[in-house]
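Subject: FAD/NAD(P)-binding domain-containing protein structure
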Amino acid sequence: MSSTHPIKIAIIGGGLAGATLMNALLKHPHLDVDIYESAPEFSERGAAVGIATNAQAALDEIGEPVSSALDRAGAVVMATSRLCIATGSNALDVLFDLAGEQRGKVVHRAALLSELLRPIDKTRTHTNKKLSRIEELSGGRLRLVFQDGVTSEVDAVIGADGVRGFVREHILGADHPALRAQVSRFKDSRALLPMEEAKAILGAEYFDESHRQYGWIGDGGFFMHDVLDNGKTVQCVLCIDTAEAWGSDAESKDLYRSLLEQALANWTNTPLRRGIVEVGTFYTLKAYAQSHHFVDAPTYAKGHACIMGDAAHCMTPWQGSGAGMAIEDAMILETLLREVTDPAEIPAAFRAYDEVRRPRTQRVVHSSYGTGLILSGRGSDTRLDKDKISQALPPRWGFIYEFDMKEHKRDALTAFEGLS
Ligand SMILES: Cc1cc2nc3c(=O)[nH]c(=O)nc-3n(C[C@H](O)[C@H](O)[C@H](O)COP(=O)(O)OP(=O)(O)OC[C@H]3O[C@@H](n4cnc5c(N)ncnc54)[C@H](O)[C@@H]3O)c2cc1C
């Protein structure tokens, strides 16, 4: 039996996951969707995000207005990428160049979010609305209680509320071992340098017209630099395996010269190593822990609620896939909710979503961490062996990039039929 009223859906969280899903669902008149963000305004922190080819395909499947959002936000195809080894007897050798055709697009986060928000009717976007409780009412309806006391009754809630959100707790329970993200052993720090400064500190030979990205595998760490702003700025990222270097699981740590020297103590003393220390001390940096949902959640759905994006599967950034997985989540949720004609079908739709999305996204969480170990010279089979690393790394991206979105959508619909 079809519902005579539109199905009322609340998306919690206005990051890239929530904003992408909002656009996807708004195309369907039988869905009445609002988006709630706890912060005073919708915003994205950080400079750039890479949107890989699989996520671009998912955006195309969702269609307008999201399929053109990347281009409207000024995304550019990523420059070629060169992986090198920074330490040992082969220090400064090139391992391999990543093929140009595998590259995604890189975009400023704030610009992408702004383009995703632009098409949304402002009466449907709500800021300063921190969800603090979900009450289950009769007939499957939910009452959402926000911190300011405002309530809203809905047929479904989708938690796109990030790694510290609330909806995961509603689904898993407050004591579940998979509830909280773990602080991984990696901390990373970023610096933005004017091009001339970067050339002087790191060596002009790494900065030519090709604007190539460089990744350097170290002994217990990884250093990366790439060119932004049409060649005006260089972004440097240093990831340290702090389990060895600092032995601390604090979430952030000021980076001082002595700590950097300590973190790079095992790296061969090359001009690059000295440059990395200089980058870190010249610009006052902070190192932030990389968190991930390393304990697998047994489900992403409960009744009329589900989670997506970082709320479901926060991952370390080594394979650059967190936002991409959130976009794929949005594609599958739209595929399923388009078919839902009565609120009573929502639990089956969310279970189908869980069935197809959880295995893939949890695999990326673990693969990303394993990739981090290899890239920081700590892979158990690869360590700092140049040939083994060169063989082990390239295949790790295949299952992420070479993925058929149309088939994924069909699998979701088949699962939904089986559960309805
Ligand atoms: C260093 C780094 C580099 C990365 N690089 C890449 C990359 O190149 N490619 C890629 O695909 N991914 C990358 N990622 C991952 C990507 O940034 C994230 O996966 C993605 O931004 C998550 O989006 P989200 O919307 O799920 O979560 P968030 O961006 O965390 O958004 C959640 C929103 O929910 C709000 N919220 C929280 N609690 C509540 C509540 N109770 N009520 C209402 N609102 C709430 C928050 O304020 C926030 O706005 C990277 C991550 C890091 C850390």
